[in-house]
Amino acid sequence: MTQFKPLTPEEEEIGKAIVNAAFEVHKRLGPGLLEKVYEVCLSHELKKRNLLVQRQIDIPIQYDDIVFDEGLRLDLLVNNLIICELKAVDLVNPVWEAQILSHLKLTGKRLGYLINFNVPLMKNGIKRFVL
After folding, report:
1. If DSSP codes are grouped into helix, strand and coil, which group holds residue 16?
2. Largest alpha-carbon pair distance within the chain?
3. What 3-state DSSP class applies to 58?
4. What is the model's pLDDT at position 61?
5. Is residue 111 part of a domain?
6. Alpha carbon of 89 to those of 8, 67, 97: distances in Å?
7. Ramachandran assignment for 128, one of left (phi > 0), alpha (psi -120 to 50 degrees), beta (any other)
8. Chain centroid to CA 26
9. Is the pLDDT of residue 2 over 70?
C-alpha cells in the first residue's frame, strides 16, 4: 500500500475553509440552482475568508513536446493549492471523480474537492481527494 505524505497545515486549513464555505452557501441558497450560481457564491465566501480564488482557469497540459493550452479548465483554484470542481446535479458521475484525480496529477496539486450542491444535506455533497 502506498503511503502518502501528510498534507501541509496550510492545505488542511484551506480545505476546512472550503468545506465551511460550501456549507454556508448551501445553507443560504439550498439545492436546485445552476452550478454557476454556486461557483460565484462559493468564490465570494472564500474571498471573505481572505483566500485567493481563481475561477474557470485554463491549465495547459504537456505531453511529450506538445503543450495543449486548452488542456484543463478548473472551476476553482484556491490559493494556488487546492482544486474545487463544482456540480449541481442529481447524480454524481464516477468519471468526475477520475477527472479530479487527473487534474490533481496533471497540476501537481495534492488536495481537491468535488462539491455537489444539489443535495438535501451538504455533507453528502462533498468528496475530498488527496494525492
Report:
1. helix
2. 47
3. strand
4. 81
5. yes
6. 31, 32, 14
7. beta
8. 15
9. no
Cβ atoms of 31 and 119 closer than 8 Å: yes
Domain coverage including residue 55: 9-130
Q: Which three three-digit cell numbers place residue 106?
A: 496533471
Whole-number Å distance between alpha carbons of 119 and 20: 16
Domain contains 1 = no
How many CA within 13 A on the CB side of residue 42? 30
Which neighbouring-strand residues pair with 57? 74
43-67 mean pLDDT: 92
- Amino acid letter, 55: R
Specify the pLDDT at position 3. 63
Is 0.90 surpassed by the pTM of this model?
A: yes
Each as own residue / partner, the long-range contacts of residues 90-98 (CB below 8 Å, 24 or more positions apart, any chain) are 90/118, 92/116, 92/127, 97/127, 97/129
